[in-house]
Amino acid sequence: MTIGQIIGGEYGDVWIRQKSGETIEIGDLLSIDDLILQVHDLSYGSLMDNNDLARMSGMQLEGYDETSLMEEEIRNFINAKAKPLVHIKDGDAKIPKILPDFFGGLKRVTKEDFEFMEEPENSLYLGKVRSGSYTLDVPVYINGKEALSHHLLIPATTGRGKSNLVKVMLWNLIPKEYCGMLIIDPHDEYYGRNEYGAKDHPKFDKKVMYYSPNPPKGGYHLRLNISGLKPWNLQGTIDLTDAQNQAVYMFYSHFRDDWLSELLKASNEEASGYGIQEATMNALKRKLKLKFDLRVKNGKVVPKGKIFVTEGSESLVNDIVKAVEDGKKVILDTSSMPQDKELLIAGIITDKIFKKYKSYKEMGELEDKPTVSVVIEEAPRVLGERAGRNVFHQIAREGRKFNVGLIAITQLSSMIPREILANMNTKIILGNEMKSERDAIIGSAAQDLSKDSKNIASLDKGEAIVSSIFTKFAVPIQIDFFDDVVEKDTKEKKEKNLEFFG
Ligand SMILES: Nc1ncnc2c1ncn2[C@@H]1O[C@H](COP(=O)(O)OP(=O)(O)OP(=O)(O)O)[C@@H](O)[C@H]1O
Ligand SMILES: [Mg+2]
After folding, report:
1. Domain end among 240, 274, 309
2. By Cβ atoms counted within 10 A, which residue in 74, 83, 400, 464 is the most buried?
3. Residue 196 CB less than 6 A away from ligand 1
4. In terms of domains, do 296 and 441 share one?
5. Which atom in ligand 1 lies closest to the alpha carbon of residue 377?
């Protein structure tokens, strides 16, 4: 059924008169022939001039009988502005280069309009096609192996559904062999201690590892033996002077994995034997002890906290790297840690993964390995201008060459440098209230979203736009609600078991 008619405009700004009795929303998808248009703005239109309108309004307000010049529904109307979103040609989606027929009638899209959308290999399900606030029964997939190694950005104002989206993606990725994941979880929300989470997945035991300073049964201890710390892990987490930095490397070159404990135990005489001054040594020791919660007692380095230890957990980093390489999903509960410790641990593990994948590339073995995706919340902490050079920066710049990508979650895209934003080749844009944030996202999107500012501002919880070099157009989607997904998937399984056992 026709719900509007084209009455003018230009490419990117097609004017549509809304049929009376119909409601066109911002974000609605409308079809005409083989084109799909998307509404990005609404305004009033009238056939009368402003004086006439003011006079008639006055008469209505003051209780005079209305004087009608023409039929109401013909006289005043709503004007929608839309842009051609996709041109379906020979069963394939193309960037539209034409305008639809002048005076042509538009219909609402239906499921059949999206028959060209297919499930790619190594698929990752994101949600369903959405027209305004109406969801169509058309699943949207991207090639997960490709897209995850080319980084994903999830920008949104707080409470719009970023975490819900990551929960849904993780759930769908758990059984997929093509991708290993490291999820740094500062809110401890992905495992699901007290609510639904990865733990409820039928394949949790085989495919997910959960590390926490206070692990539940079946989880693992998140604690790091200081022998696993390398001098370059300190970069960006401790401010060291040049002299202090040199001292660190001096000890590393002499003692390798024991550099930290040997440094903390070293007397000033020993240090001066390496050409390190007393003042440098004292200040450095103080900083390192504070950072890693360590002290020296009776000539032995002992831990004061639960996270950095001197005995046990030597294999933590290697275990995690191995799991990720096997296509498993590893969740790190960092909720009880101060931010600097969280980023230090996350950095050490990520660094090891990245180095390993670089070496696989050199040895020509990369093809056989799953893509690795590292999930990081509040991404400007590690990707912002002020974060300094760190492994996350490096991955954002060159990770895709080594099949290592980021899933960067943020409320503040504008704090991430433009070139890094542009490198995030898939953006799943949820509602964003701040114009400066929308501008940063729009300015670095894979498709032209210059008309979509209002559209993005008006996105409700779970509504998103996927802009990606791996999609033919910026696809509006509705993301599933995680609790529903869990209930559906576990119910099916329970029913199957029931059938099986009678
Ligand atoms: N796809 C969805 N469908 C229905 N409800 C949703 C959806 N996504 C999110 N919600 C609702 O919105 C609430 C907030 O979502 P979520 O915690 O994912 O937001 P967020 O963007 O991660 O927020 P924050 O910035 O605070 O971390 C959820 O608890 C849920 O009730
Ligand atoms: Mg969240």
Report:
1. 309
2. 464
3. no
4. no
5. 27
Which 3-state string (H, E, C) describes 460-486? CCCEEEEEECCCCCCEEEECCCHHHHH
Q: How far apart are alpha carbons 281 and 67 in whole angstroms?
A: 91
144 lines ligand 1 (CB under 6 A): no
Residues with CB under 5 A from ligand 2 (ion): 162-163
Residues 339 and 411 in one domain: yes
Residue 490 counted as domain residue: yes
Residue with tokens 């974000």: 27
Is 99 found in the same domain as 38?
yes
Question: For each of the chain's 502 residues, which pLDDT tens digit applies?
Answer: 899 999 999 999 999 999 989 999 999 999 999 999 999 999 998 877 888 778 878 888 888 875 666 567 777 889 999 999 999 998 899 999 999 999 999 999 999 999 999 999 999 999 999 999 999 999 999 999 999 999 999 999 999 999 999 999 999 999 999 999 999 999 999 999 999 999 999 999 999 999 999 999 989 999 999 998 899 888 777 889 999 999 999 999 999 999 999 999 999 999 999 999 999 999 999 999 999 999 999 999 999 988 999 998 889 999 999 999 999 999 999 999 998 899 999 999 999 999 999 999 999 999 999 999 999 999 999 999 888 788 999 999 999 999 999 999 999 999 999 999 999 999 999 999 999 999 999 999 999 999 999 999 999 999 999 999 999 999 999 999 999 999 999 987 666 666 655 4
Q: Which domain holds residue 246?
A: 231-309
Ligand 1, atom 18: closest residue by C-alpha: 161
- Same structural domain for residues 99 and 212? no
Query: What is the token pair recorded at 81?
Result: 């502005």
The region, left, alpha or beta by phi > 0 then psi within -120 to 50, assigned to residue 90 is left
Identify whether 30 is part of a domain: yes
Q: Give the position, in ligand 1's atom list, of the atom nearest the Cα of 158.
A: 25
Please state the pTM of the whole predicted model.
0.92
The residue out of 92, 114, 136 marking a domain boundary is 114
Interval between CA 416 and ligand 1 midpoint (Å): 23
* Helix (H), strand (E), coil (C) string for 52-65: HHHHHHHHHHCCCC
CA of 481 to the centre of ligand 1 (A): 8
Ligand 1 pocket residue status of 155, Cβ below 6 Å = no
| Cα 160 to middle of ligand 2, angstroms | 8
Same domain, yes or no: 145 and 47: no
Q: What CA–CA distance (Å, rounded) separates 307 from 6?
A: 64
